[in-house]
């Protein structure tokens, strides 16, 4: 009996629509990361991008537990001396709520050549409107 080894041409990608309203950031991010990597599929392999597309709506209504709204900090640095910029979760949520989910999911994906390819299958929208209505008409 031969072992089945999936190829990138045999991948069937599904589309998942997730409403983030009232959901906890960390718990939702783990579910999204599993769907993006394809870990729920029976022919999962780590060296191929076989994951599904995930569309997230209502990103501005996601919640965090405890005092994380004021204590969770996002860092970025320009590369110049004194170029560190610090932003709290509440500020990031008010300015760009999509980036909160993208950064959380990005941290849960493997740090290899597939990271950017996998992350391209994540589509996040701040409200209920999204550009992928055609993919969800049939199912």
Secondary-structure blueprint:
Elements: E1 15-19, H1 25-37, E2 53-57, H2 68-71, E3 73-77, E4 84-88, H3 89-95, H4 97-106, H5 114-119, E5 122-124, H6 133-136
Parallel strand pairs: 1-2, 2-5
Antiparallel strand pairs: 3-4
Helix pairs in contact: 1-4, 3-4
Q: Fill in the CATH topology of the domain at 14-63 and 97-128.
A: Ribosomal Protein L13p, Chain: A
Q: Outline, from the CA principal axes?
A: globular
Low-confidence stretches: none
Number of H- or I-type helical stretches: 6
Counted beta strands:
5
Instruction: Please report the first level of CATH classification, the CATH class of the domain at 14-63 and 97-128.
Output: Alpha Beta
SS-derived structural category: alpha/beta
H-E string: EHEHEEHHHEH
Strand order of the largest sheet: 1-2-5
Helix content: 25-40%
- The named CATH superfamily of the domain at 14-63 and 97-128: Ribosomal protein L13
Quote the average pLDDT: 94
| Largest sheet features | 3 strands, parallel
Looking at the overall shape, the CATH architecture of the domain at 14-63 and 97-128 is Alpha-Beta Complex
What radius of gyration results from the CA coordinates?
A: 17 Å
Range of strand content: 15-25%
- Give the termini separation: 36 Å
């Amino acid at each position: 009996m031969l072992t089945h080894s999936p190829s990138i041409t045999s991948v069937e990608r599904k589309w998942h629509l997730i409403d983030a309203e009232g959901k906890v950031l960390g718990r939702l991010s783990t579910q999204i990361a599993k769907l993006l990597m394809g870990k729920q599929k029976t022919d999962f392999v780590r060296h191929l991008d076989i994951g599904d597309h995930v569309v997230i709506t209502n990103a501005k209504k996601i919640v965090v537990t405890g005092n994380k709204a004021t204590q969770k900090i996002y860092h970025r640095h320009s590369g110049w001396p004194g170029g560190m910029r610090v932003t709290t979760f509440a500020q990031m949520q008010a300015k760009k709520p999509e980036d909160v989910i993208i950064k959380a999911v990005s941290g849960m994906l493997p740090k290899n050549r597939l990271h950017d390819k996998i992350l391209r299958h994540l589509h996040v929208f701040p409200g209920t409107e999204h550009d992928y209505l055609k993919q969800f008409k049939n199912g």
